[in-house]
Amino acid sequence: MQEASVKFQYFAAFVVNLLTVSYGITLGWPSPNILLLISDESPLPSGKITLESASWIASLLGVGALFGNLFFGFIINKFGRKMPLLLLSIPTIISWLLIWFAQNIYYLHAARTLIGVVGGGVFVIVPLFLSEIASDRVRGFLGSTFILSANFGILLAFVIGNYCDFYTSPKVAIVLMIVYIVLFYFFPESPTFLAKQGNLLAAEDSIRFYRGIRENYEESELLQLEMAKLKNSVGDTKSDQNHGNSFILSDLSENPARKAITIGIVLVILNQFSGFFAMTNYTGLIFKEADSTLPPNISAIIVATVQIVGSYMASLFVDRAGRKFLFAVSAVGMAVGLVVLGVYMMLKSWQYHVESVNWIPIVAFSFVIFIASWGIASLPFLIIAEIMPENVKDFGVTFCTALMCCFTFIIVKCLPLLSDVLGFHGTMFLFAAVCLCSELYLHFNMPETKGKSYEQIMDSLQ
What is the pTM of this model? Predict the structure, then answer.
């Protein structure tokens, strides 16, 4: 029975992550295609674009993401998870159609802004939905598939961009969306949201669907157990709902909400100010600094493959080794890799002869990407969804994701400035310090959520 239950949840995660894969293709799309768009072989009827226009292709994604984060963070409290998840497919398809039939750069700018809105929604809703449909013993694995799917989409974009024409990526992404709409349409709303609305019969049907429960004595007992857990987890919000408001600011002044929000902020700080995401945006520069002879697109494919392997390792171990262990390995390991990279660049800047070991930056950078994918890059969204009390969950997840969007803009824009002020090596040392300080806080304050029920997690946050 448990195996059947897990298979239903795996299938649900696979279907909803088709949306994540499509968004991942969006994230990876600029890397190979901007090189094409600024060349004389540009597929746009208006001709090649300027570097200034190309820079907007990347930055407009962040502008749209912040808006999408706030918008979808608001409507999930009113309309649940299923309807917004289906709604996200519409701007996704429109954005890819704009790229497919682009006549000039303005089509691409509109497409990137629109897909940014989708990204803001995806990062809020998908981890939340996965955490709400998962049973305790596979919640970590299902949650980790979110980043794994996004990384797979990035790799897919790099491969398509390197070996296929400009119009292949839109076709692949649109087909994925059509399959997603057809399959996800028949899925029920998450049981947690239905229970919050007081619709316990529908919540029971939802649990039956996602657990694969049929009618017999043993499975009836399982259903009763799951319903008891669900009622208990949403029970604290019942009185608030009766007053027509499930969240008020005073909820944040006391534990467990206050501690959960603080942990969420530290997780987001670690996710961005460890330098992981910013460095992936400068992959080509780092390979160039190492005097690599690999073409930029091949370098990007190598990095994306390393991310996939790291994310997959995280998904394998997250429900075995636990979240705190993976975060410790990820943060300390990343700090070591950053220090090695920083020392090499420092010696090079001091005119030491390091040509004989010019493989170090590539190996160190690949290690940083790999080990970051174990925890820092893959688990924050899972943990934030797990530790938020039900009465502040929608707000907490939205707030942390919006904060991440702001931090992403700051660190990507400021990385060149930091490198000018501190040197490339000084910037690496600063990122390493953020990793170690954040891990120290999380070690003493973040609860282990592996295999724990909602009640146990809330007790550990008191």
Answer: 0.82
